[in-house]
Write a structure and sequence with these properties.
Layout (H helix, E strand, L loop, with lengths): L2 H17 L27 H7 L1 E4 L4 H18 L4 E2 L8 E5 L8 E4 L4 E5 L2 H16 L4 H4 L1 E3 L6 E4 L32 H12 L4 E3 L12 H14 L5 E5 L4 H6 L9 H17 L5 E4 L16 H12 L5 E5 L14 H5 L1 H9 L10 E6 L22 E7 L15 H8 L12 H6 L9 E5 L15 H12 L5 H13 L1 H11 L2 H9 L21 H7 L5 E2 L17 H8 L9 H4 L2 E2 L10 H24 L7 H33 L23 H25 L1
Parallel strand pairs: 1-2, 1-3, 3-5, 7-8, 7-14, 8-9, 9-10, 10-11, 11-12, 12-13, 13-14
Antiparallel strand pairs: 4-5, 4-6, 15-16
Helix pairs in contact: 1-23, 3-4, 9-10, 15-16, 16-17, 18-22, 22-23
The structure holds beta-D-glucopyranuronic acid.
Amino acid sequence: MKLRHLLLTLISATLAATAQTKAPQVFPPDESGYETWLRYTEQALPSETAEQLTRVHVGVSGETAEAALSEWSRAMEGFFDREVKRVSDPEQAGVLFALNSTLGEEAYQIEVAPRLRISGGSERGLLYGVFTALSSIQRGEDRAAWAKSSEPFISLRMLNHWDNLTIDPTLGSIERVDGSTIFEWPDLTRPNPRYEDYARMLASVGINGVALNNVNSDPAILSSELLAGVAALADTLRPWGIRVFITANFASPVLLDGVKTADPLDPNVQAWWRAKADEIYALIPDFGGFLVKADSEGRPGPGTYGRSHVDGARVMADALAPHGGIVIWRAFVYGRDISERTPHQRAADDVANHGSYEFMHLAGEFPDNVVLQIKCSVIDFQAWEPVHPLFGRMPDTRLGIEMDLAKQYKGYDSTIGWEGPYFDYILNHPMGDGDPPATIAEIVAGKAPGHEPGLIAGVANIHDARDWFGHMLNASTLYTYGRQAWNPQAAPEAILRDWAELTFGDAAASGVVELLDDSYDTQAKYHGLLGNHSLAELQHHYRPDPWEPLFAKKTGVTEHGIGFDRSSETGSAFLDLYPEAVAELYADPETCPTRFLLFFHHLPWDYEMDDGSTLIQFLYDQYYEAVEEVRAYEDQWRQLLGKIDLERWAHVQEKLAAEAWHAEQWRDIMCRYFLEVSGIPDEKGRFTEGTPESPHVRVNTGFWRGVQDYRARVQRERERIRAITDE
Ligand code: BDP
């Protein structure tokens, strides 16, 4: 029996038993989680106010203003069980939707007296104002507090889906996500109400661009057949202020149309991209552009033809420029020979240096409609990994930042690690020139000297679970990401509080916030290794596999200690890539934040930590603490029984139990490994060499399917490219 059903049965039985002695507990009505934070539940406002709020004058015409009105109507029905009346005379209205040309394009202003007036710099601004006002009402703010004005800090705020386009019996897989896509790739033109709900959810947190498919791009996305589907989806998303982007496989001219080469300097290749761009814009006039992973992890790219990243980006950028589109070129490139540019071989050997040395010398050379998208962290998306120094090394270049919402390496949707504090660290990290130095958010927003506006992108954690995320608490990560992209300086905890109130209501909100607010640190205690590679198993990135030969190399484990020396004197000189003040902070183990200690330093097992314990004991303790903390989640959640509907309560309880098993696996495997290599026993005697691996071996395979699907395709592609170009 599935655990959830077991739980529900047990709870019902307990309730039935108690009902005989006292009044049964009344639970709120069950919910599936589908409505996420847009639940619009009944509000106790005076009926006069409710009546006013349902008389709306829309002084703007357009499909986005209509979308705003439809959202308002949906909410009024939920709040007050009343239908909205659209009035033509503004004097008769209780609510005015208006434009205000003094505001920035996406900005809004909400005034509360004499009537509620929501104005936008454009229809999109109005839409964002409407969502903000609805959130205020739903959270029970006093009317005076509804008055707000705001505009986004970063102009392009995206989600990147890693959809494989595979056509399964059900729906396609997604790389690094444990679930299937919500997009019906075989026929995207088929109406599906979920698409609009997806758009509403994104628009409500200000997301205004989506890249629909995997960066390991299937060239089929550029086929006329699939483009027709993409156009249909773009039509659904457009009213909600969302532009569509797709990823482009660099070898598309070869793979789709049998062009003999994909060399970006070849006139046939240039003509192919121009024709493709023309075809796309005829279907999707506001198409955003291409997101490109090239010369990375075996993907084709300009390097295949001896050309540079700039040449590669330019061939697409030139084709898109007449239509106003952009190329988003990913900087996640490693494993190529960079030794000519590094100070010494040690630097060339450290993968942390690769992305930077691959691109730094190209600063200022990319065409104006190219944005270089850099992962937020240096190696990949691991827990509390230091920020990528390339953000400070690309003057005169539009930059974008890629964050991970899907939590690969961090338990995917089986853990609650809420990433708000990590995103806050990254976005507000000083990295530029000047006094005070520009932050990463300012650099990508184009608000730092030498940078035009770039973008922020989150790798999406959405899939076909009824609640969209497979773990209802992980909706908090998308919500927080959207709000931080809008305002990187907003306090993450305040955003979390809003989300909790909207999602679970007032009675449960504090408990939910308490559960989540430190959860990223808890997660880092078992998934992270003080900033160093935590090395989840190489293929599925889920369980640890420290005996894998690369582990020791990547983490610097020896019998004497652990960590990676990234100093300039004796190590890989990675630290030199940071601005001086940042490098100084991280360079000294005494000032380096503990959470990054082993990323920057190789230290002996008996190194004395701040709390007086030895390094090895500190690690053991962390794993044990993490398990205790995760186990405590279940107790904390139990306190909320009765404050949340049973359906959602049981879903979360089941997930929390699974996380406890997961944390135990990490603890048992990692502690055993560290004991083996260091020979130093746990001074608290909690385990010994003979301790067996965790009995709870649970490897979830959904996300592994996403990787297998794309790898099989890549293999087929390679063979085709070879066959065509060798002909
Ligand atoms: C790695 C992922 C891999 C992605 C790659 C990327 O494990 O599945 O394709 O990043 O971002 O972290 O391109």
